[in-house]
Amino acid sequence: MVKSLVIIGPGWPLRGGLSAFDEQLARTFNEKQLQARIETFSLQYPSFLFPGTSQYTNEPAPKDVNIHEGINSINPFNWIKVGLQLKRERPDLIIVRYWIPFLAPCLGMICRMTKSNKHTKVIAIVDNMVPHEKRMGDKMLTRYFAKSVDGFVTMSNKVTNDVRYFSSKPIVFSPHPIFNHFGQAISKEVARDILNVGIDEKIILFFGYIRPYKGLDLLLNAMANNAIIHANIKLMIVGEFYEDAQPYHDLIKTLALEARVIIHSEFVPDNEVKNYVCAADFIIQPYKNATQSGVTPLAYYFEKPMLVTNVGALADSVPNGKVGEVVEPNTDAIAKGIETLYNNGAAYYADNIKEEKKKYSWSQMADNFILLHQKL
């Protein structure tokens, strides 16, 4: 029986989707009358390994979540300290977030030391078992981490299969819940007025960190398709570049897209996300490979039809032709899919989006952890 639990992973003052996820999961457990807190990082990445502008948010700490900044990802003496602390604390359950092999030594040692109390069970929630950008030693590090936990929760079938490659321990599949901390939707008119975008313009949105696997180059090439040009569709790119931005600017210039591409390359605070999502007609995810995406639940939350490519598990949560369009990861297919979205219109997808979003609740995610704990 679970009475107390600790989530090990990003949380305030670290920013981004992983922090938002962990904080909402902690809230959900607390609403179920369980004692939940987050043990986050005092140092998550050394600055030279972090590709963005800042790891930290300027927003105030959440008042309804207990967060402790105790983990230094590169200090083994700290790992021992945190592990001994959790061993003595004896939580019934630790939920540890795994998304990058770099953190495997840190997280693996903390979990091993905690479990030596012969009481605490450890469940990993896995975003990526196999990283998008592969490096030497990834498999060795992931195996080390996998041996330190008792079970896994995954949010896509692809990740489930990846976990099975590394471990035979129990796995529960639980879809990525819908983020609900962005505030109420606003009208397209209000959102576009805030962003100084014309109400009659056709605007598609690429949202989130920009990395090679996310296929922004495919989308830019699709913007040069004759049908897209003729329809005068514009692309709004909102997200930090986690790689060199210059090749994208060069591509925009080469394709003569300067007048049809709007770039906001700074981190967007949670309370401003609605301005961009609500201003868009459709959300486009032109990924070259993927596990699951935090952008899909964002689209569901604001009830925006989307286009996703048929890679990884993206299509699993986007019924084709019902809540959006699923296409192959190439320029022509993406352009054709965008045409289809506009030909159908947003209203065509509206009822199905409202129905489909009911599947992705935080309460169900929390219950799946409890059910898995009971089996361990």
Which word captures the global form? elongated
Largest sheet: 7 strands, parallel
What is the strand content? 15-25%
Pattern of helices and strands: EHEEHEHEHEHEHEHHEHEHEHEEHHH
The oligomeric state of the chains shown is single chain
Distance between the termini: 11 Å
The helix tally amounts to 14
Roughly what percent helix? 25-40%
Poorly predicted segments: none
| Strands in their spatial order, largest beta sheet | 3-2-1-4-5-6-7
Mean pLDDT, as a whole number? 92
Count of β-strands: 13
Q: Radius of gyration, rounded? A: 21 Å
Q: What would you call the structural class? A: alpha/beta
Describe this protein's structure.
Helix 1 crosses helix 14, helix 3 (about 105-115) packs parallel to helix 4 (about 140-145) and helix 7 packs across helix 12 (about 330-345). The protein has a seven-stranded parallel β-sheet, sandwiched between helices. The mean pLDDT is about 90. It has helices at about 15-30, 75-90, 105-115, 140-145, 155-165, 190-195, 215-225, 225-230, 245-255, 270-280, 295-300, 330-345, 345-355, 360-375; strands spanning about 5-10, 35-45, 65-70, 95-100, 120-125, 150-155, 170-175, 200-205, 235-240, 260-265, 280-285, 305-310, 325. With about 375 residues, it is α/β, with parallel strands linked by helices. The N and C termini lie close together (about 10 Å). Helix 11 (about 295-300) links the parallel strand 11 and strand 12 (about 305-310). It is built from 14 helices and 13 strands.
